[in-house]
Amino acid sequence: MLFSLLLFFLGFVILSGSILVLGLYFFGKVLANLAVTVPPAASPNLNPELIGLKYQNWKILSKDNIGLAAWFIPPPSFPYKKSPIIVIHGLGANKEFMMSYIQLGHTLEFPVLAIDLRGHGESDPTVVTLGLKESMDIESWIEELEKKGYTSPILWGTSLGAVTALLAGSKLNGKISSIISDAPFDTLYNALITHAKVLFRLSEYPMVPIVSWHLKRSYGIDAHKIDCVEAAKNIDCPLLILAAEQDVRMPINMVQRVFDAAKNPKFWWVIPNANHELRLFNDDFKEVITKFLYRTSIKSDRSE
Fold first, then answer.
1. Which DSSP letter does residue 227 get?
2. Which of 50, 148, 247, 286 is 20 to 30 A (C-alpha) from 33?
3. pLDDT category, 5, cuts 50, 70, 90?
């Protein structure tokens, strides 16, 4: 009788453990799939003409044959003396969300290229790779700019766009004039920990390692190697790193680790009373951006 009870208890423990492991496996897979899926977002249905700016629709293919879309807003006068700015939005947004960025860049007489990241906006639908392939797409856009005579671009990205700018800049030394990185994570793994807590009230263990494993197994995304701290160490152009005072998704200490690792010249600003991504373009914000852009812009080769 005692032996039968022990067998029953052992079987129950094994069954319960198996169900728990399978549950964690499949829940982790769901979360990993969610991480690489573009969140649904209502399009604001905007374009630069609505604020009086002439623009061109640009289309290119990525190195893995994903169609990529952008708006190019020429500078207000020729010949011009400033580098083009590549404006890079965050996860779930698109170039239509970046009208304030476009307007400020144009007002300061920079050529502006506002891109749709892969899977977003008018670019082809596909999974998000959380900076891995997006940073390679920046290289393709730079090649397209160079074909048209625009060289030494400035990268200006927010959130996923900030990560993309840093990862691209670490591989493109000599081709980038400067980088504005607004609210990047330090590593994707640490960002998963933070988002698990903020969005799902989950601790790191056991879910974050499971999600990280699924990302690497299913999508080739190594959460430990999507690393903006290491990227910053390898960037030779001037950097402006921004954090937001009330950002719970990319908190100040996370962003500051990127700044601390970067080489000089580098500049740091915490945006007062701001949360993640929402930028009001008040006078202080515009002053910080404008000073950095004027300080670090390199004249393009184009002289028509």
1. B
2. 247
3. very low
* Contact between 154 and 84 (Cβ < 8 Å): yes
- Angle between helical axes of 132-147 and 160-169 (0-180°, round to 10): 70
How confident is the model over 272-302, as pLDDT tens digits?
A: 999 997 899 999 999 999 999 988 875 544 4
Helix, strand, or coil here: 90? coil
Find all residues with CB under 8 Å of 101, minimum gap 6, and list them. Answer: 87, 112, 114, 156
Structure tokens at 133: 């392939």
Contacts 24+ apart (CB under 8 A), 211-218: 211/28, 211/31, 211/32, 211/35, 213/28, 214/28, 214/29, 214/31, 214/32, 214/33, 215/32, 215/35, 215/36, 215/130, 218/29, 218/32, 218/33
pTM: 0.90
- CB count within 10 Å of CB 138 equals 26
What is the average pLDDT across 233-254?
A: 97
DSSP 116: E
Q: Helix crossing, 188-200 with 207-219: angle to 10°?
A: 130
Kindly state the helix (H) or strand (E) to which residue 143 belongs, with its residue range: helix 132-147
Which residues fall within 8 angstroms of residue 287, CB to CB, at 6 or more apart? none
| Structural contact between residues 254 and 247, judged by C-beta atoms closer than 8 angstroms | no
Among residues 196, 178, 180, the alpha carbon closest in space to that of 188 is found at 196
Closest CA to 281 of 108, 163, 131: 108
Using CA atoms of 80, 86, 87, 90 in order, give the dihedral in degrees to the nearest 10.
-170
Between residues 20 and 44, which one has the greater pLDDT? Answer: 44
What are the pLDDT digits (tens) for 189-240?
999 999 999 998 999 999 899 999 999 999 999 999 999 999 999 999 999 9
